[in-house]
Amino acid sequence: MALNLDSGDYKIFRDGFRKFVQKEIAPHYLQWEKEGRIPREIWQKAGENGYLCPWVDEKYGGTGAGFEYSVIIAEELARAGTLILFPLHSDIVVPYIHSYGTEAQKQKWLPGCVSGDLITAVAMTEPDAGSDLAAIKTTAVRQGNHYVLNGTKTFISNGLLADLVIVACKTNPGAVPPHRGISLLVVERGTPGFSRGRRLEKLGLHSQDTAELIFEDCRVPAENLLGQEGMGFLYLMEKLQQERLVCAIMAQGLAERMLDYTVEYCRNRTIFGRPISGFQHNAFKLAEMATEIELGRAFLDSLVEKHLAGRRIVKEVSMAKWWITEMANRVAYNCLQLHGGYGYMEEYPICRDYRDVRIFTIFAGTNEVMKTIISKEMGL
């Protein structure tokens, strides 16, 4: 029987989170977009209500719920057009601590991650190393009970807000092949030698802070090593399946949102005495988008079930991340066109959604990288 996230306890949770979004986030989101920030208080409110890291074990403050509850949160944020990066924190970064951290590390950090008192980020990208993680230049040299970390990271989501940053670095720069020298260090706010660069101005996601992170002789306690030295690249690869699935989930939700309000707009907006949807060309465009969105939904739902079952679906998730994010961008283009001049106005949601959806083809690995992965998985 197919998983139905709109029934039973899932529906109760979805309805509760939807109300939370409508009460605590939606009324303020446009203001946060203008200010270029998300207040810490909303993270803490989300934590108080159980909407951060719901899958974390009860002994660390979570509810021990399944990943399906994270799916609901990601979908509802996208469908409301309020793209706060709770999923980045809950389903991409914190799982590294949960999977590879020592018991002491889990007890130290996980409760704060669940409550919203600790906001997280992961720092992989560098000015000269994006999707090619093996090419990173940030180094960490062991000196007694510390690692001395040096390097610069860029395009880091939650970079300014983050209290914990998982940093990919080279602990063995001479390793052959290079990826075997990569390790993960957890750098805490206030660590000497750790500073934040400028807030980066972006095409979309204006309220989500994205920043440069700078490490200059940053002394990180050796106990902040996550997992084993030299295993960082493997850890990153193991978690990318879920990261890319979350990306596809949010892109799918955005596509569904854009079509819903565009259909309504086309029914009510008239031109030459007829509704916009009354013209065959426009009706066909809406029908084409609706079909592609249904195809995306069916494929995505099947992958969520397989992921929940613990299956390795790297090829299929890479396909979904590529195709669904491209589809969402096609939907954005056509929906804006159907709005005409109004679609270019900030007061209409399609204007912001058009900007925001563009990044989905880039982060979590560009879609060109997705095609490379698919090809390799096919044995090509």
Automatic annotation (TrEMBL):
**Which Pfam families does the protein's record reference?**
Acyl-CoA_dh_1 (PF00441), Acyl-CoA_dh_M (PF02770), Acyl-CoA_dh_N (PF02771)
List, for all copies, the residue spans of the domain called Acyl-CoA dehydrogenase/oxidase C-terminal.
Answer: 230-378
Q: Which family does it belong to?
A: Belongs to the acyl-CoA dehydrogenase family.
| Every Acyl-CoA dehydrogenase/oxidase N-terminal domain range | 10-117
MF terms (GO), sorted A to Z: acyl-CoA dehydrogenase activity; flavin adenine dinucleotide binding
Per UniProt, the keywords (alphabetical) are: FAD, Flavoprotein, Oxidoreductase
| Names of the cofactor(s) | FAD
Could you tell me what this protein is called? Acyl-CoA dehydrogenase
Acyl-CoA oxidase/dehydrogenase middle domain mapped to chain residues: 121-218
Organism name? Desulfofundulus australicus DSM 11792
Q: Which Gene3D superfamilies match?
A: Acyl-CoA dehydrogenase/oxidase, N-terminal domain, Butyryl-CoA Dehydrogenase, subunit A, domain 2, Butyryl-CoA Dehydrogenase, subunit A, domain 3
